[in-house]
Amino acid sequence: MSASTSAQTGRVASNFVPGPILLLGAPGVGKGTQAKELVKLWGIPQISTGDLLRGNVAKGTKLGQAAKEIMGRGELVSDSLVNEMVAARLEEPDTAQGYILDGFPRTLGQANWLDGRLTAQVKSLPAIAVSIQVNYNQLLRRITGRRNCPTCQAIYNIYLNPPTRKEGFCDADGVALVQRADDTEKVVEERLRAYGAMTAPVVEYYRAQERFAEVDGDGAITAIAAGIVAAVERLRKQA
Ligand code: AMP
């Protein structure tokens, strides 16, 4: 999605303030891909807790050292560590018009923590949660086929969205693509189990609230993004 797409649909007002947007859904539904589309459209940051944690692992910070093995097993890092990391990121000035939380909250504890924080901030808009749905077989294909550019963080899929210039290399900068260590079938099983046990209840928690939408994550990237944008605009207009 781009500014021209918004012009085509005529739906996005130039002064639209998205506020906090939560992208929910199982590993592999395309949260990261969709977050990047929304960033392009709205100019607000994507805050991926997975990316922040991987950054900490790469730098060997104390947080990274604590998270590395847990992530390698496909389990969830503790709420206290993740909440603290998110709190620090939300303090940054680029979040003033809103942000897209990708991969957070993943437990009811994290959802309650975020709600408490947003309620305490008089100026903050309430969060809008969008859950992306994809069937199990698609999920497996998406996760095991996923490849990332370590330089620009572009996301490809060897089955569904391969690079067009040279197989295995990023279209944008020509760097060799890599597979995440936890995108293997064995670890994926545990990640999906953790999702069902800990994160599926978070989706139900938001579903029970007014500011929740579900979108079908099967289809063209831009079509799915348009569905998310329409849902967010509709929910933001509600008093
Ligand atoms: P992701 O890139 O969102 O698939 O996250 C990769 C891994 O980082 C997960 O499997 C977890 O181990 C960890 N992680 C990311 N976000 C969270 C979170 N909100 N709470 C706990 N662990 C997380």
Written account of the structure:
Helix content is 49%, strand content 13%. It has nine helices and seven strands; from the N terminus they run αβαβαααβαβαββαβα. It has helices at 3-9, 31-42, 49-59, 62-72, 79-90, 108-120, 136-145, 185-207, 221-237, and strands at 19-24, 46-48, 98-102, 128-133, 146-148, 155-157, 212-216. A five-stranded parallel beta sheet has the order 2-3-1-4-7, sandwiched between helices. Strands 5-6 form a two-stranded antiparallel sheet. The two termini are 27 Å apart. 35% of the residues are buried. Mean pLDDT is 92; it is low at 1-13. The structure holds adenosine monophosphate. The site of adenosine monophosphate has 17 residues, from α3 and α4.
SSE layout:
Elements: H1 3-9, E1 19-24, H2 31-42, E2 46-48, H3 49-59, H4 62-72, H5 79-90, E3 98-102, H6 108-120, E4 128-133, H7 136-145, E5 146-148, E6 155-157, H8 185-207, E7 212-216, H9 221-237
Parallel strand pairs: 1-3, 1-4, 2-3, 4-7
Antiparallel strand pairs: 5-6
Bound molecules: adenosine monophosphate (AMP).
Adenosine monophosphate (AMP) binds at residues 27, 49-50, 53, 70-71, 74-77, 82, 103-104, 106, 110, 182, 191.
